[in-house]
Write a structure and sequence with these properties.
CATH topology: Glycerol-3-phosphate (1)-acyltransferase
Number of strands: 7
Largest sheet: 7 strands, mixed
CATH superfamily: Glycerol-3-phosphate (1)-acyltransferase
Number of helices: 8
Strand content: 5-15%
CATH architecture: 3-Layer(aba) Sandwich
Length: 229
């Protein structure tokens, strides 16, 4: 227990420093799409602080500098640290508007160019994600999305929401699926807490698809990711 508390204290101090730096960077160049990437690089040290090992397969599928949409399963609040491990330049994330209320992190998240979506209204959320497709295309940015829409610690994925796939089709952007195996076994009270396994699947192209294809596309990718999880 002492080891766990010590690690968490060091981690929270580190988070405070990193996100304060992120706020300063974002104030100097607000909404710049690379703000998130530079902070993500610093956040990778979090796994060293916690003693957690990571195993990443499929890095050859990261698609270079081509604007893409990452879709990943969502298990825990620390999934943003997993995203940080493989995030590429000019990448932003999509999150709930509630994230803006978190002290320090919320201010960084808003200023750094990440996208907040009001999910209290499905119509508003879908409209925002359609516009996101245009933004991806015009600004040449990549986006990280959790299509389950909420945390899920089970071994069976929740049905994927269509929004991310509508955006990908609107932008005609490739999709990079990221399947993270269940890591509920991780225990930072131990000297060796365990390993998180991450699989980056082959790129899925959306060229020629239309909005009506988004549901089928979501189901297809959910099946592929489920097979690895």
């Amino acid at each position: 227990m002492i080891l766990k508390i010590t690690r968490l204290i060091i981690l929270f101090i580190y988070f405070g420093l990193v996100f304060t730096l992120g706020i300063i960077i974002s104030l100097l160049r607000p909404k710049h799409p690379n703000n998130t990437y530079h902070i993500a690089v610093l956040l990778r040290a979090s796994f060293f602080i916690l003693g957690i090992k990571t195993k990443i397969k499929g890095t050859e599928n990261l698609n270079g500098d081509t604007p893409s949409i990452f879709v990943a399963n969502h298990q825990h609040n620390i999934d943003f640290l997993i995203a940080a491990l493989i995030m590429k330049p000019n990448t932003v994330t999509i999150g709930k508007t509630d994230l803006a209320k978190i002290p320090v992190f919320g201010q960084f998240y808003t200023l750094s160019g990440n996208i907040l979506v009001d999910r209290s209204s499905p119509k508003k959320a879908i409209r925002a994600l359609r516009l996101l497709g245009t933004t991806i295309r015009e600004k040449s940015i990549s986006v990280w999305v959790f299509p389950e829409g909420t945390r899920n610690v089970g071994d069976v994925l929740l049905p994927f929401k269509r929004g991310a796939f509508v955006s990908a089709i609107e932008a005609q952007a490739p999709i990079i699926p990221v399947a993270v195996k269940n890591y509920s076994h991780i225990n930072i009270s131990k000297w060796s807490p365990g390993t998180i396994e991450i699989n980056i699947l082959p790129i899925v192209l959306t060229e020629g698809l239309e909005s009506r294809d988004s549901g089928e596309l979501a189901g297809k990718l959910q099946g592929q990711m489920q097979a690895l999880i």
